[in-house]
Amino acid sequence: MDELRELFRQVLDENLIRIVLSNTRDEAQGTKVKIRPVIIRGVLSFQETLYRGTQVFHSNFGKDEMSHRLREYMERLFRQAQVDGRLEDATVLISKKGAVKIKRRRKPDGKAAREQQDLSHDRTKQYILQEGTPIDFLIELGVQNTDGRIVKAKYDKFRQINRYLEFIEDILDKLPADKTLHIVDFGCGKSYLTFALYYYLHNLQQRDIHVTGLDLKKDVIMRCQKLADELHYHNLEFLQGDISSFQGTEHVDMVVSLHACDKATDYALEKAVKWGAGVILAVPCCQHELNQQISCSKLQPILKYGIIKERMAALITDAIRANLLEENGYETQILEFIDMEHTPKNLMIRAVKASGIRPKSAVCPDGSREVMEFLHLNPTLKELL
Known about the structure:
This protein has 13 helices and 14 strands. The chain has helices at 2-11, 63-76, 109-114, 136-140, 155-170, 192-204, 218-230, 264-275, 289-293, 300-303, 306-327, 365-374, 380-384, and strands spanning 16-24, 32-40, 43-52, 55-61, 78-85, 88-94, 100-106, 181-186, 209-215, 236-240, 254-261, 279-285, 330-338, 345-353. Strands 4-3-2-1-5-6-7 form a 7-stranded antiparallel beta sheet, covered by helices on one side. Strands 10-9-8-11-12-14-13 form a 7-stranded mixed beta sheet, sandwiched between helices. Strand 5 (78-85) and strand 6 form a beta hairpin. The N and C termini lie far apart (48 Å).
């Protein structure tokens, strides 16, 4: 642990952007810790954010105490640390036998100089992809200028990309770190988020990954593949095809489906479950199927209003999808996500394959079936699974 102790001693200064500890040994003690530098009453301190279940704890420490806490965390609780700094990045991995592997990456001087940050206690939001740091795919997709500044008209897209990466950061320790990660992005479209996913996992997290983007539009797929080739994003491929008939692989660790229309989301979820994917991220849209089916005399005073019926049907669709995923062994959340048009908020279904046997109290298949019978619903995902 001497090398680890020296790493933390060196990186805990004003050039630090963040440290994220993950891959916990004991979820009851904490699932993740984030560290960031702050200036409090003119003194450099470090704010610790500890995630434990549904609770979040914030504390501030000086450099020596923070360094001690980091070593303690890595010795007894976490197996992975990601250090992001203005001068260098570092990744720490600890094996189950206690072997420590540290990989450090110095940044070019020009890049470090542009990564300016505000350490005030109430500073503006710090993103995973930092403003002022040129990133090749963001420049090529028109989100950044060559000097790293965000194009004003694309700032909402920049926020959306970072919000998406936060969702992935939260489940990073649920993905295997000792083999190639196979990821499929169904309905990838123009692939802003597909490129972001690849860049974050491969370039920033140093993961060995293979990403496949699938979409129906041939011209879009050709443009995306051309860009991936030009950026030398190896193991990022784009294929033309339909989700329901896709047979391109037998094993997938993570399935992404962002704004697949109507029942296309159900086919994506079916594929993910049957592959046994460890992580599923789905942002459904255009949930028309149940709007055409829903029927209930007791709710008729509400359902007679078309827009109310439409919105209720969309919410019920995603709630049933989440329940069906739980019945198939996934711990499932429904979270708010920024929409593609950047105006209303949308819902993301985030599902992580549960380890071991889940208690019966955690799943209530009879309850979801009662709801479907009450509303006269027969959703596609139920039939597929």
